[in-house]
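A.,

Following up on our hallway conversation. Structure tokens first:
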């Protein structure tokens, strides 16, 4: 659990039963973005177990918050759930998993999953998104022609007294 973290994604949830399903969707989305679709089922199941255990020990009247975090580190994907009341589910206790008391309060339950053979965290590409215009910009059509001289005069005027030259 000490290797350098290459990528991280997290989501804050309320410790209610719906958090289990939301954590599942979050894990599946993040792994798709990281091009680790082959790990989606195992990682989502792990997150469901960790979040489910935290929801079980949460106070029903005041459930609190959970932070679900995915980290790519070394040859592992680490699934973490952090909160005031977190437990390690028994089915994960035998694997590469643990429960840590945090110095600032609260606890962290974690489980390491091995990346596909031959892959390391540094080899996982960062998500890429295509540049897109907003729907409003699309409705306007092409970019308007902008006179650079006009823009310069506007910027000069916005500069106030400090931006004016004394002639």
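Then the amino acids I'd put at each of the 167 positions:
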């Amino acid at each position: 659990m000490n290797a350098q973290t290459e990528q991280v994604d997290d989501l804050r949830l309320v410790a209610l039963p719906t958090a289990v399903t939301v954590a599942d969707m979050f894990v599946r989305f993040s792994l798709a973005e990281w091009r680790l679709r082959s790990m989606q089922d195992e990682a989502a199941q792990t997150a469901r177990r960790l979040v489910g255990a935290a929801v079980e020990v949460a106070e029903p009247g005041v459930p609190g918050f959970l932070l679900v975090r995915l980290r790519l580190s070394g040859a592992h994907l680490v699934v973490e759930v952090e909160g005031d009341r977190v437990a390690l589910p028994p089915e994960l206790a035998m694997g590469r998993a643990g429960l840590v008391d945090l110095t600032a309060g609260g606890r962290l339950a974690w489980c390491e999953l091995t990346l596909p053979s031959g892959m390391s965290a540094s080899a996982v590409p960062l998500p890429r998104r295509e540049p897109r215009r907003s729907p409003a910009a699309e409705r306007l059509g092409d970019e308007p022609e902008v006179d650079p001289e006009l823009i310069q005069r506007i910027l000069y005027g916005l500069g106030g007294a400090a931006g004016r030259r004394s002639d």
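The domain at 5-123 is CATH 3.30.565.10 (Heat Shock Protein 90). Curious whether your intuition agrees with the design.

B.
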